[in-house]
Amino acid sequence: MVKAIRVYEHGGPEVMKWEDVDIGEPKSGEIKVKNKAIGINFLDVYMRKGPRFAPPLPFTPGMEAAGVVIAVGPGVTTCKVGDIVAYAGYPVSAYAEEQILPADRAVLLPPSIDPIVAAAVLFKGLTAELLVRRCFKVEPGHTVLVHAAAGGVGSLLCQWANALGATVIGTVSNKTKAVQAKEDGCHHVIIYKEENFIDRVMEITSGEGVDVAYDGVGKDTFEGSAACLKFRGYLISIGGPSGSADPLSFKLVAAKSLYFTIPDVILYTKKREDLLAASEEIFANVTKGVLRVHVNHKYPLSQVGQAHSDLENRKTTGSIVLIPDA
Hints:
Order of helices and strands: EEEHEEEEHEHEHEHEHEHEHHEHE
Structural class: alpha/beta
Mean pLDDT: 92
Radius of gyration: 20 Å
CATH superfamily of the largest domain: Medium-chain alcohol dehydrogenases, catalytic domain
Shape: globular
Low-confidence stretches: none
CATH architecture of the largest domain: Alpha-Beta Complex
Strand content: 25-35%
Number of strands: 15
Distance between the termini: 18 Å
CATH topology of the largest domain: Quinone Oxidoreductase, Chain A, domain 1
């Protein structure tokens, strides 16, 4: 038996229970991993609240972790007992001391990457990679708008877009987060509680607008993000902690010939070759210092309720990890 978080009903952080579970042994194509660190993503909050994004009840939340392989099932050739691996995406099962994973969803960690860093960066890094490489290919001369610029994804996105030569405009809620956003490569930081971000973006861009807006806030910023775009600009929705956005105005889309997408990192990495290529680029950029991972908050796995509460109330910056042995 090992300890894990179990959810039997949808609701607030209090529905997550710390319990003994029997996860069994790996079957064909599977591995068993003893987790060293577990990442938290806002998608975990959506699943806890349910039911739209959640697996069937009961379930163990979590979609990102790193640890050591302690058993392999028949037919596994991609890793062996003793290897340090990380995974991001599915299965939903990471909030546990140990877990069973499909071997083809695990990636080997290079020696330069600490498991805590891997657990903090892989899911968010895969998201950032598809945002700057595949949804919209960021190049020198582009101007990008990043909401929640001091958050886990936002931090990586600002750094990566800056490294690719873009002018980066970030929005944050307070001065402390503004300092981090600036350190992460934002050329302009807007504290949206103090000034109208639409007016400020248009001022910064001399009325032209931005090439792409990455909206990780939702209802509070979505329509404004569209208003900030150039003609034929890209509006990319990557989350909605402020609530689901209202339907995008057909008139606004047509007036500017906008492109709109809601990318799914799991679909973008469904093929193992895509997962490996993106992961290798993320780890290489971390090793080279292009991407700095801010592991600003660590909680014992048993105190995940507090971690969720802090995340929902926007008390966190950077990445949050859970430590099973803490």
